Amino acid sequence: MIYILSAVYSFIASLRIPTIFLWTIVCLALGTSLSDQSQGWGMYHYYVGAKYFEEVGYFDLYECTITETTPRRDLRTYDYRLDDPDCTSNFTPERYQQFHDDIIASEFYPQAMIDKGYNGSPTWTAIFGTLANWNIITPHNAHLIDIVVLVSALFFCVWTVGWRKSAYVALIVLTFYGTLDRVWGHYAQWVWLGVALVGVCQLEKKNAFGAIMIGISASLAIFPMFLMLKYRDMKYFILFGVSLLSMLTVGFANGRGLDGYFEFIDNMQLHSSYVKEELCCNVGLSHTLTWSQNPYQDYRLCFIEWNDTCRTSYTRGTNPLLYFVTLPFVLTSPLGVMHGLLSLSIYYYLILAVIPIWYGERWSRLILFINVVLPMSVIFNVTLLPYRDWIYYLFFVAIGAIHVIQVIQSAVGNHQQGSYTQIAQRYVSDKIQRV
User: Fold this and answer.
1) DSSP letter at 223?
2) 58 in a structural domain
3) How far is Cα 109 from Cα 72, in angstroms, rounded to an integer?
4) CA 282 to mean position of chain CA atoms
5) Three-state DSSP class for 106?
6) What does the pLDDT look like over 1-17, one tens digit per residue?
7) Is residue 120 in a domain?
């Protein structure tokens, strides 16, 4: 199978796809995917969770949602509960009624309470919770934020890096199997991505304002800070740091002040420890190298059956040698560092939308090929989803290995510059950009 896939990819990678054809696909994908419908699951967690954060925080959303015994996850332990609800939050009667009106308006359904609660950062909460409380955003128009931000970011990419690279950016976002039917319909869930894309585009054009945008994105979703590893200008790091600290200060308006930050840290520690044992949606080097299978359909059945079998356990460090052999390659690229050091949700693989901006077209086509093959394999009953983390991991290793080769070639070139200047300069040309 791997030889067949390699042969197919080699053929595809050799093609020069016309830009007009790429944009035709983008327009068709946008036309069929853009929706004016909210998705109850995400809207309930992020709209309601942010608007009433002062009352429910990170741990009481599910307990305060219901008034009678209903299966739900205990957000302080991640165990499932089937007992009487215990809402200890400080609602006024009017606010409590409004809370339940918004739950209904968000198209909530009980099965949503087996997820992992509301996980927006304090800065995200302060901004989008305020917009909701001021009634600027309602459950009926909340889904428009992602559409406006992502489409605006796409056209900003066109303006800065050109039509062709921007088409690949759009296609990577729209074809990613982990967000099929999930890109639209949420409440500001992808603002971090739009802001990060704008920041990367600006930095690629040597515009220092891009570092400020990366700082904003990092305050919303934390992990985009790793994008700054590609830019080594101290001026960029200073602007990034000032931007991030400023946005973290904004986060104190989350409704719970400093306590909101402490709760966020506790919530993320619990979340991270749990996803490392989860069958479906965990990513990262520590998970990948254990070769843990991901039977997605079995994971979905866990939700339907209301039990705790979604959690699994597996031996850490199945082959410690793999860490020593492959980690240096992974850590030589910003995306590899992110993958190597963190345990993230599968949705954050969308950060790979920066690939067309950073690297050559061949790498963009490879990501598109992966995006298509993973879901299509399910249709033909030869699912590759259990191996998705290895597929992406090998992608990071390939980029990292080329970075290592470039460093070696650069060192050789510098040594030879005295007598072979032109040859050395040609020898150390950026092969990633070239392909």
Assistant:
1) G
2) yes
3) 12
4) 12
5) coil
6) 444 544 554 555 556 67
7) yes
Tokens (6 digits) for 376? 């299509």
Q: How far apart are CA 236 and CA 229, in angstroms?
A: 10
The string of DSSP letters for 350-400 reads: GGGGGHHHHS-HHHHHHHHHHHHHHHHHHHTT---GGGHHHHHHHHHHHHH
Is 171 in a helix, a strand, or coil? helix
CB 47, CB 108: distance < 8 Å = no
Which residue, chain included where needed, has tokens 């990292």?
400
pLDDT tens per residue, range 238-271? 999 999 999 999 999 999 999 999 999 999 888 8
Q: CA triplet 63, 67, 72: central angle to 5 degrees?
A: 40
Which residues span the domain enclosing 71?
40-133
- Asked, for residue 168, whether it belongs to a domain, the answer is no
What is residue 97's predicted lDDT score, i.e. its pLDDT?
A: 93
**54 inside domain:** yes
Locate all alpha helices (DSSP H) within 281-330, ordered by sequence: 285-288, 296-305, 320-330
| Domains contained in the chain, number | 1
Q: 244: part of which helix (H) or strand (E)?
A: helix 234-250
Radius of gyration of the chain (CA): 23
Alpha carbon distance 291, 129 (integer Å): 39
**How far is the C-alpha of 206 from the C-alpha of 244, rounded, in Å?**
19
Rounded Cα–Cα distance for residues 165 and 148 (Å): 20
**Could you tell me the two tokens for 130?**
């305020």
